[in-house]
Amino acid sequence: MAMGSRDEVLRRIRDRLDKAGMKYEILIEDADSTTVRIDIEENGTGPIVQLEESLAKEGIRFDTGYDMVKRKRDWILDVSLEAKQMKDVPLEQEFKLHRDRSVSYREGDIFRFPLDDKGHFGYGRILISKSPLILVEFYGIVAKQDPPLEAFKNLDWVLRIYTGDLGIIQSRTWKVIGNLPVPGDLALPPFWLKDPVNGKLYLFTDPIRQTGGVETTSEEVRRLWAQPGIIFGHEMARDRVIRTLREKGVL
């Protein structure tokens, strides 16, 4: 972490949670690891992801996880914690997300988003809209100029994940460039999650509600091409796409 102490970051996070009226608990494992555990049933997945996006905008990022049994979302403040710009952002008096209602989106929208500061863009399509959450498929294509819309019709996706919509309606870094209707018979992949308590992997059809989880193996996850079952903030989604594109040698 390039600035501020862990206590300073934790204070900022607690302030955000308190002002949002969210129920949470803080678990301190050791001097270098703290977990903020947030009740999903009480607070709802959407508002939690929005709050993560607000913190990311202030330069505070961290790994997230789930306790699937207790229905808790964990913010893991260990070596994954970044808070590079926190001192440059004044502390808001009141937590409020500004959702620009003049910016709209719908299922089937193709959008671009910046991958770096060299003018390279990545591309994705909204498959399901459950505002403020969207299920997006990202493509294995990198370009400086938008391809024609027809080019996306038979393009294979490389990642399908749930993420927040603030990249479109707040930061506007995700720009809609067209629409290709989503097929009515769209077959969604299963989603996988790792239980942080017992270390086992589980498959879900709906990672938002996380019901009906079936124990699985890493081999089956790969065979079924199961997708990550956590809900990503849009900045974390971008980071995951960049990692995937690099692994495939596209970026």
Structure in words:
The model is unreliable at 87-97 (pLDDT under 50). The protein is α+β, with helices and mostly antiparallel strands and 251 residues long. It has 3 domains: 6-88; 109-188 and 231-247, no CATH class; 191-224, no CATH class. It is built from 6 helices and 16 strands. The longest helix has 14 residues, at 6-19. The strands form 4 sheets. Strands 11-7-8-9-10-16 form a 6-stranded mixed β-sheet.
Please provide a brief summary of the model.
The chain has six helices and 16 strands. It has 251 residues and is of the alpha+beta class. The relative contact order is 0.15.
Shape: globular
Helix content percent band:
10-25%
Number of distinct helices: 6
Radius of gyration: 18 Å
Poorly predicted runs: 87-97
> How are the strands of the biggest sheet laid out side by side?
11-7-8-9-10-16
Number of strands: 16
**What is the terminal-to-terminal distance?**
26 Å
The pLDDT mean sits at: 83
Main sheet specs: 6 strands, mixed
Percentage of residues in DSSP E strands: 25-35%
What is the count of distinct domains? Answer: 3
Q: What class would the helix/strand composition place it in?
A: alpha+beta
**What is the element string, with H for helices and E for strands?**
HEEHHEEEEEEEEHEEEEHEEH
Give the topology, please.
Elements: H1 6-19, E1 24-30, E2 33-39, H2 40-43, H3 45-57, E3 60-61, E4 63-67, E5 72-77, E6 82-83, E7 109-114, E8 121-130, E9 133-139, E10 157-164, H4 166-169, E11 175-179, E12 191-194, E13 201-204, E14 214-216, H5 218-224, E15 227-228, E16 231-232, H6 234-247
Parallel strand pairs: 10-16, 12-15
Antiparallel strand pairs: 1-2, 2-5, 3-6, 4-5, 7-8, 7-11, 8-9, 9-10, 12-13, 13-14
